[in-house]
Queue: 3 jobs
Job 1
Amino acid sequence: MPMPGPAIRGPRSLLRQIREAMESGGPVQARLDMAVRTIARSMVAEVCSLYLRRGSGDLELFATEGLSREAVHVTRLGPGIGLVGEIVKLGRPLNLSDAPNHPAFSYRPETGEDPYHAFLGVPLLRGGRAIGVLVVQNRTERIYADDEVEDLQIIAMVLAEMVAGGERLAEGALKDVEIAPHKPERLKGVRFAEGLAYGVAVLHEAPVPREQLLSDDATAEEARLKDAIAALQTQIDEMMDGQHGLVGASFEVIETYRMFAHSRGWNRSLEEAVRSGLTAEAAVERVRSEHRATVGQARDPYLRERLHDLEDLNDRLLRHLSGDGGRVHQELPDNAILIARNLGPADILEYDRGRLKGILLEEGSVASHAGIVARALEIPCVGRLSGLRDRVNQGDPVIVDAESGEAYLRPRLDVVEALKARMAVRDQRRAEFARLRDTPAFTRDGAKISLLMNAGLAVDLDILAETGAEGIGLFRTEFQFMVAEELPRFNAQTQLYTRVLEAANGMPVTFRTLDLGGDKILPYLEAEREDNPALGWRAIRMGLDRPALLRLQLRALIAATRGRELRVMFPLVASVEEFRAARAMVDVEIAWAERRGRPAPSQLRVGAMIEAPSLIWHLDALLPMTDFVSVGTNDLMQYMFAADRGNPRVADRYDPLSPPALRALKTIQDACAESGTPVSVCGEMAGRPIEAFALIALGYDQLSMPPGGIGPVKQMVLSCDREAARRGVDGLLKGTEGSVRSQVETLARKLSVVI
Ligand code: PEP
Ligand code: MG
């Protein structure tokens, strides 16, 4: 027969009692004992036990009311063992009428738990990570009611915060408890934006401060929550109606948002949490951490994707709660390292650039928004750090090593010292590069090498002058589209291109038309899922099949040029027909502008990017049609070696400093020289001194690169004898090795080239 529900419905007063117990003075053990006693009494449970996770992963009985006291600090369960281990593993409650009959039950005679059948255990969750388990037990076989489960979860949340957040508690008795990670750790990830930084962790989704967990007025709090939910629902409904100018909005995603926003389960959980005494913000956190724990473990990519939607929805709700529908700004310390799961287009730009020294992300990809913006702002950024958010606490000291692609959490002093030494060397080198800014890049034997900058956002333009670049060799126009919330219209595009040309101040700028598709997906454009997106409907293929977008872009480029030179090139051209068709579109747009009396470009240069290997064997047909070409080695290598450039498992398997890659590059350069077609390299390799050295040796004299590469590459050029380099590299082209990197390095050293 079911037992009656808890005597005091709703844990409001209980939460206060727990807080008082935990924050009272006295030994930690006494405070935990008091907390479990209070919970047991309030829940009408015969047993209430608290298990906490040790650094080893074991769950240890830390306090109990009802079980044998001798078992405290004696009973330990290894990871995944027993019902408590199961709860940690699942990250959600276990509600059993007859616990000893459960297959995961692990009998521990010292606890004296034989007489108890009913069992309810909930995880103590912090940021989706279980740091312990709270259990209540009763003799009679019964299933605990839903609101009891809900109450215990709320209690567990507050208890988790109290245990984890109390600095004084973390000493002494709880020292070895894995409440909050406190040991030094090193996580391996992927470098998104180069550089080094040391600073203080700032969580992008900052936890609700402990003192703001509990509300004083549940009715007012409920009203606040309801208003925020209503505002959120309206916002999502409007998105569905397309009132925010979403062109072909990704229907499925917004539909999912809507489903969640209106879902009764979600709403009810939030309301329950508020009614029981949490603030609205704490309620969102509670429900969020439960979702994270359950859905986050799902293997199914579809489900994991839905977790993203939920996370976004929670963020939106928190923003509505903050009052103005905008983001809650955090005060940044002077040397902030931002920690996030992932960052949206505008997120980084919202932080104070002067204080933001580095970024660590759990997810993302080099080509993601966060990576793009971090590189543009030259903020060191490492991504794909699995488990990051669980391992770092707000305020922890952290190192961003975006040279090796690693993060050091709570680093040891010697690691910090070593890093500081490396940072000093970097600063010194930067100062040297700055001194070289106005020195033209000539090799020792007098060959002029043009060093140009790759750009894509308005923020890039600020550093153009600082770098000493001779122009912009690749302006990736799709970046503007990727960081926008909706499709940039004609005026917005024209404005950006005008700003770029003005910032260049007469120096050449090569605009690349939209390179979308593949991994560059726009949230507001409907895209079909493709089995092989890198080989799919992307770049110029999209532009030719759906010409409206490309035409609009060309029109905006011509308008921005206003009688200046227009240099435009097309990405991923794979056949001469494609280039011919794309070039014809430029001519049509120029004729269109002329018919309307608008100024035509003073000079028109139309080029192709060489990224598809097919063109290498059709250069004789292509080059006469082009005014210039630019080799996109990032894509060219990915296609030549059939290795996805964004997939860390395969991206490093090949080396552009290898006979096949160098021979292909030489073939292109030779053909261009013969036909008199200007050629540049604009892939990342152009910005790495050793690889740029090989390119110069092959005959290339225009290199376009990320801004950070210009100083080091110029230093290399100034120290290089091109003729000697050519002879040396020529000798490696016939090599039988998979990589000739070490030989190129030896050659550079022999020739005293600074690499
Ligand atoms: C390339 O592929 O080398 C290139 C420069 O273009 P993106 O990196 O934008 O694909
Ligand atoms: Mg490319």
Note: Residues 12-174 form a domain with the Beta-Lactamase fold (CATH 3.30.450.40).
Job 2
Amino acid sequence: MAEQAYKLLIGGNLVDGDSTMDVVNPATEDVITKAPRASEAQLNDAVAAAKAAFPAWAETPIEQRRTVINAIANAIEAEAEDFARLLTQEQGKPLPDATGEVLGTVAFMRYFATLDMPVKVLDDNEGRRIEAHRKPLGVIGAIVPWNFPMILMAFKLPPALLAGNTLVLKPAPTTPLTTLKLAGILKEIVPAGVVNVITDANDLGAPLTAHPDIRKVSFTGSTATGAKVMEGAAKLLKRVTLELGGNDAGIVLDDVDPKEAAPQLFQSAFQNSGQVCIAMKRLYVHESIYDEMCAELAKLAEEAIIGDGLEQGTQLGPLQNKMQYDKVKDLIEDARGSGNIIAGGTTPDQKGYFIRPTIVRDIEDGTRLVDEEQFGPVLPVIKYSDADDAVARANASPYGLGGSVWAKDTDRAYALADKMDAGTIWVNKHAELDPMIPFGGSKMSGVGAELGADGLEEFTQLKIINMAR
Ligand code: NAD
């Protein structure tokens, strides 16, 4: 077999995969390159290397771990342009968005490097002294999906390392390249075995999750796969953090100016061609402004420039992979019978997994497009007359990742936001993430939280020392 351009990182060595797999550019359907495909034996080697590296890394002073995380951030920043181009090629998103993701990755890493895990004294008197310590867990399995391969990695790797854990990192099969490029950087900066990178063809997530030497699985992906991760982790009572699917509702109140709000609503739903866990996935609009809002959104959808993310001016790229492309097309076909498509609904006659941004009106709850997670560039707009009823409909979902309320009267919006059942509710915005704000889902959208101090704690074991005086 010819030497592979991209390599796995196992035990501090960059190695070929035992086999290879094609990586396809979703904008052209051309093969970008062959990526290594790790075998289960290589997965086991990666876990063994992480296990062997754990005691020394856990003993390394936190200041030194901080320095390593900052050095990774600096190295990514120094190659930000190359990372961004590669990200656009493998993921499809427009180059400016890819650049934003890469620089966001750097910023998230630097944020985590500032955190601390001080010992908390819970009680201290002549009778006793009680201390709460945060200890690393061991080897972390970090599993990332294909919509934001870099920044979602940065939700996991820096806090896991700061807390003193070692890792086996696995990107999604269709977007392995930026993570493999990162492996080259990690080899130079991180002690051997502390971070290992493996790539698979959707076959190593299950053995990674079930591996007896993995102490925690930090997973971002679909709800169906998240449930499998929990099942795989249950036997050994591993810790899990699950960031899963969503069906975020936006509720627009009657005092909103449709012309003013439509661009922000459009962006909330269509960013990354709708392939965002916290994209707005259904929009409830008051009947008094419904027609106008639908018309404004349809206009924006018609005007949007879709194309190869490397071309200047592209606003929306393709769907990331054929499976997702077929799924979204299927949902649009179904919506033809349950609503009125007033923009999009078509696939341009060109190569690549493109779907025109699609607005569907006169559609109700109980239809597939409203009830399921579309994860693509199609937005159902639903009419309501009573705001409390809209909240009840928003809440009547097995998902609870995010949601938003839009209003001029922010007191009214706040009162409704308080009644919505999801991990994050935004008011007059949607999908804002910040590394210092904890993020997690309710119901079937997840277990636990990432980001912020809470996100760091999830990579630790609470340990109490209770001493008699
Ligand atoms: P997916 O669940 O198919 O895959 C995610 C990852 O899990 C991939 O790396 C995959 O190889 C791996 N995997 C596959 N089978 C596995 C198994 N049995 N055990 C362990 N890992 C396994 O998800 P996807 O299609 O890549 O991503 C889209 C989904 O992710 C959407 O539902 C979206 O909402 C969700 N998502 C959620 C968040 C969040 O933070 N809540 C963020 C991004 C995406």
Note: The radius of gyration is 23 Å.
Job 3
Amino acid sequence: MIHTGRHFLQIPGPTNVPDRVLREIAQATIDHRGPEFADLGIEVLDRLRGVFKTRGPVVIFPSSGTGAAESALVNTLSPGDRILILETGWFSHIAWRQVAERLGLIAEYVPGTWRRGASPETIEQRLKDDSARELKAVVVVHNETSTGVVSRIADVRRAMNRSGHPALLIVDAISSLASIDLRHDEWEIDVTVCGSQKGLMVPPGLGFNAVSEKALAASAAASLPRAYWDWQEMLKSNKSGFFPYTPATNLLYGLREALRMLDEEGFENVLARHTRHGSATRACVRAWGLDIVPEDPAEYSNSLTAVYTPEGHNADKLRQIILEKFDMSLGTGLGKLAGRVFRIGHLGAFNDLTLAGTLSGVEMGLTLAGIPHRSGGVAAALESLTATAQPLPSEDAPLVR
Ligand code: PLP
């Protein structure tokens, strides 16, 4: 089948890369030890601090998100250290538990249903019980990309503080940064881990660690073997805008442009936009009469929605029909949700009409796949988008440019 127009990449990352970012990436590669590079490095490192809401350093690796997760662990921990990981879904397992165990850490994996975020109460109790202070870190996935469930990091931090326990707080913000409110400094996160391919609107290939002073101090004593991932070498070079090895120069061009775009839109507007699109998507799914994975409205994700197909209807079959007929990619169900859910990504470079097109494709696909649902989902989303659209400036108000 020949498709015309643009492919709809509506998986929850990698996300659609704006043309402005693609054009920047297409520039000639420059000398990464020359003066022009330093300007690029300094601007990118500086702007990133604003996105992570930190005054401390943000480290950039040419890596995927899993690499950045490994870096967070090897820089702060020692062989045999015990850490607490909250089971929220596929990524708490694959990116954290599995990596931690392969590194020789003891991962205490607190079971979860995949329908709820990390429980601050459970964390508080476990830390209070740990009078020997054996737990060295708590790991929470902020936005569990396999389920569309958000963990309440500010509440986790308050719970940790109430326990009086010194464990580090490591947060996976891979699918929340620049889509869902995250405050590295205010929430006293020790390492925030991210990747370039989601809310940051850059192709895959960059991993990030925002690092607190406490995490830096921990790194001085941590003895897990590390070479490439070592923060110290990186921070030394970053001071003058350079990297200790060859950086991903062209991706950094793209990142600089994406960060400028977020700044132009206004960071709070970016988050508000994701909130509107999350609400409109859920209004649509509700109108179809289908269920979403998260149970608690306080934990609904604004970057993706994971939708159950009814018993006896394979979600991957639906995804296949939508891909073939409408040239749209939706996220597959991961781990125990394989075949049971499809995931709609509504993050990154995204607008009202992209959402309208996305939901229209799903609605047509549901019909073609013979999946029982009520009509009116797209209409409900449009109603929600219209009701929350920015008001037009009134006729006598001066136009602000
Ligand atoms: N953690 C979360 C929450 C993710 O969404 C992902 C990827 O989608 C990862 C970890 C792993 O990141 P990567 O695939 O870039 O290594």
Note: The two ends are 45 Å apart (CA to CA).
